[in-house]
Design goal:
The protein has 297 residues and is α+β, with helices and mostly antiparallel strands. It has helices at residues 2-25, 41-50, 53-72, 82-94, 182-203, and strands at residues 30-34, 38-39, 77-79, 106-124, 129-146, 151-166, 208-212, 215-218, 231-242, 249-264, 269-276, 284-289. The strands form two sheets. Strands 1, 2, 3, 4, 5 and 6 form a six-stranded mixed β-sheet that branches. The chain has a six-stranded antiparallel β-sheet with strand order 7-8-11-10-9-12, with no helix packed on it. A hairpin with a 4-residue loop joins strand 10 and strand 11 (269-276). The longest helix has 24 residues, at 2-25.
Length: 297
């Protein structure tokens, strides 16, 4: 009896140790610090000169909160306290040193490097009338830095443009900016979604987490920017590659199929397999064909 009891205890201990080891191996969420979003000095000066400084400020403020929301809702990161990141970034800049946030795994910095807010007037000869529309264009550069190495792992420029028709009288067709907040809300949401998706994909590429018959499940939910109708390409990882010039290491990515998003849920997404030459669990998926954004009313 004693021998059986000892064997049972040893087996239980081995099971618990194995379970703990698996839990430790799970990557888990990464810690991310997001610095305060700001426009470049040239953009700020140009918008002030054109009289749309308030419009630019509204976009920056909205984008600041929208990016935080979109990144948080990827459910891939623990977002660190914003005020700490801003204070340390400012202190490091004043001292001429590199910004290091020791509690974070990654730092996200965003600079608005292009902005336009204007009214366009078009004459529709066939209808015999003039149509005035407000157009907002926004450009931003997002950079993700790995704190441990101070290496930029991704830097991407995003451009978003929205046009909204307004029924304006003749004496207001030349007015620039501040006529409506709808376009500002739309354009900042779209920009924030692009940035949030890029941040998640740079650190945690989207993956196939399940496959059943002709349907795969992807670990991206309804807050990640994934949309029904998109076509994604599927890759499996091959050999380790070393760049002969820089020594940088990467993994070979071999295309093994394409899938089309059919359903998006709060947990994940399902896609129909279009082509399959080796799709399996944990394969990486990347957007190949997007669906158009709905036109502003």
């Amino acid at each position: 009896m004693k021998l059986l009891k000892i064997i049972s205890l040893l087996a239980l201990g081995a099971l618990l140790t194995g379970t703990a080891a698996i839990a430790q191996e799970a990557p888990g969420k990464k810690k991310l610090a997001i610095t305060k979003i700001a426009p470049t000095e040239s953009v700020k000066a140009r918008m002030a000169k054109q009289g749309v400084g308030l419009s630019l400020s509204s976009v920056i403020e909205a984008l600041d909160s929208q990016v935080y929301d979109r990144v948080l809702n990827t459910k891939r990161f623990e977002i660190l306290e914003r005020s700490d990141a801003d204070a340390l970034a400012k202190e490091a800049q004043a001292a001429g040193a590199a910004f290091q946030f020791q509690q974070a795994d990654y730092i996200l910095t965003i600079r608005v490097d292009g902005f336009n807010d204007r009214m366009e007037t078009r004459t529709l000869a066939a209808l015999g009338k003039t149509v005035t529309a407000r157009v907002i264009e926004l450009s931003a550069v997002a950079k993700i830095t790995e704190v441990a190495t101070q290496r930029a792992i991704a830097s991407t420029n995003f451009q978003v443009s929205r046009r909204q028709a307004d029924q304006l009288s003749a004496n207001t067709t030349e007015k620039v900016g501040e006529s409506s907040d709808v376009l500002i809300t739309d354009i900042t949401r779209e920009m924030a979604q692009k940035i949030g998706s890029r941040v998640a994909d740079a650190v945690f590429p989207a993956r196939v987490i399940g496959k059943r018959d002709k349907v795969v499940t992807i670990n991206r939910n309804d807050t990640s920017g994934i949309k029904v109708g998109q076509v994604w390409e599927v890759f499996t990882l091959g050999d380790e590659l070393v760049d002969p010039d820089t020594g940088d290491k990467s993994r070979e990515e071999i295309s093994v199929g394409t899938v089309k998003i059919a359903r998006v849920t709060p947990q994940n997404s399902q896609a129909d397999i279009l082509t399959d030459t080796g799709i399996d669990r944990l394969a990486i998926v990347r957007l190949k064909e997007d669906v158009p954004e709905p036109a502003a009313e």
